[in-house]
Amino acid sequence: MAAIEVTGLSVRYGDLEAVRDVSFTAAAGEVTAVLGPNGAGKTSTIEVCEGFRRATAGTVRVLGLDPSTQQRLLSERMGVMLQEGGVYPGARVLDTVRHYCALYGKGADPIEITRRVGLAERTTSTWRRLSGGERQRLSLALALASRPEVAFLDEPTAGVDVHGRDTIRSIVRGLADEGCAVVLATHELDEAERLADRVVIFDRGEVVADGTLAELRSGHDEIRFRSAPELDVLALAADLGMVASRVGTDEFVIDAPSTPRVMALLSGWLADHDLPLTDLRAGAQRLEDVFRRLVSEEGR
Amino acid sequence: MSRLGSQVRTEVGLVVRNGEQLLLTLVIPVLLLTFFSLVDVLPTGGLEAVEFLTPGILALAVMSTSMVSLGIATGFERSYHVLKRLGATPLGRPRLVAAKTLAVACVEVLQFVVLIGVAALLGWSPDASGWWSALAAVVLGTLAFAGIGLTLAGRLRGEINLAAQNGLYLVLLLGGGLVISADEFPSALRSVARPLPSTALADVMRDALGSPVAHVGTSWLVLAAWAVVAPIVAAALFRWD
Questions:
Q1: What is the total count of domains within chain B?
Q2: Containing domain of residue B20, as a range?
Q3: What is the DSSP secondary-structure string of B91-146?
Q4: How far is CA A189 from the centre of its chain?
């Protein structure tokens, strides 16, 4: 059974329908990334799952519970990481973690959690004295205090340095490996690509894609390369008879499978026009390209 | 430790470690009590300065803790999404409200121990028979001021709430019958001051602790009305995030 089941969910704020007939599931032991531009409906959807917000229509079950009427029961089994804040500004790190461990009453060890998120050296610092990355890690620590069976993590690596990101990724992966259903809301496609077993993409209040990374990428091979900025991409597309586009000053993409024939055509065309070929990469589309393909221009 | 116990400990710890809140809840009342007891500049209606001042300063302590301190802290907790995050724990709203109530009570006990100790050193010896009335007044005053503080905290952004709470504190400190009896005000100002919860609480406290007030019955009614209405308004208007 799925840990989270969302069926036909709609959320309306006055005249605005923020979420429209959304359905998806998230399984225990998996990381499900919820992606989408600002205003796409992902936060509203997650807040309904957390019990913070009521659905206008549809049903939501988290660990078999209805969050709108059984939030107290759910809260004992749920870990939550808000996008920002959530901690008393004047409270010290270890005191805060200890307090949340007491609130959940699951026997989690606050010192161990503090060490696990990499804040062992900052236990007596107050929240307001922490860096942005340290605040994110403290927020994650509070989600761990519940020994969660389901965890909703909102932008967990936003503003976190490289070392901190590694720590957070390792913890998120560890949670899933322990059987927790992790739902990760993020703007960072690279983060989702590294962590997610499953991806749900929102756009304008609707789910426009739902599947594993492999499923979303399948059938969408590409050849990505760098060349000189003056490369005439329209001429390239016309001469090769394929869809080609410029994605950066000197970076180009051809929507085609990386067969030897296509590669030969490309390298021949570049040689004919005396243009360099650098950083060639071929294969399945990156999540970023899948996202660009599925999400409307206005949404991005 | 129980959920409620942990929340109370956290709330009290935050107040005790917060210098601005200590200034408001303890330092200013102690300074006002000591200074105006030793420097005879206030009209005291023929009483010793410390006898007149102490009940009003105790009322000020109630207002500073249950309105300003609670209101500012709760406002920032709203702004920083602390209340929202706590809403995702098994604590629950009833226990959160209970914890805040108990934390206010703990701080008020601390304030009263210090202020009554200072007043005693300055020569105050109140009529012991009035303590139960004073306690009832403190409970009603706490409800009234908490209602006002939480109404502001539940609607205004953190910084605006901070300014509003401090501004209201200053207005009630000077014009709310706490340090200077409203009976000493010009008639127009007196008619504004009478219905204020601070004036009512100060009058009732003075009457209970040995300085009879002629219109104390009206003051009890005013205080009781604020104690009922203000929390209802706060509950109706409060936004958790």
A1: 1
A2: 3-237
A3: T-HHHHHHHHHHHHHHHHHHHHHHHHHHHHHTT----GGGHHHHHHHHHHHHHHHH
A4: 6
Domains and CATH numbers, chain A: 4-214 (3.40.50.300), 221-284 (3.30.70)
Shortest Cα–Cα distance, B229 to chain A (Å): 28
To the nearest 10 degrees (0 to 180), the angle between helices B70-79 and B131-153 is: 30
Is this structure's pTM higher than 0.90? Answer: no
Answer whether A193's CB lies under 8 Å from A287's CB: yes
Q: What is the pLDDT of residue A296?
A: 60
pLDDT along chain A (300 residues), means of 10: 92 92 95 90 93 94 96 94 89 96 94 94 94 92 96 90 88 95 89 90 91 80 90 93 89 86 91 91 76 62
Output the pLDDT for position A47.
94
ipTM of the complex: 0.82
Q: Does the CB of A82 have a partner CB in chain B at under 8 Å?
A: yes
User: In what order do the strands lie in the sheet containing A244-246?
Assistant: A244-246, A251-254, A221-226, A278-284
In the stretch 67-96 of chain B, residues with CB closer than 8 A to chain A read 76-77, 79-82, 84-92
B129 touches chain A (CB under 8 A): no
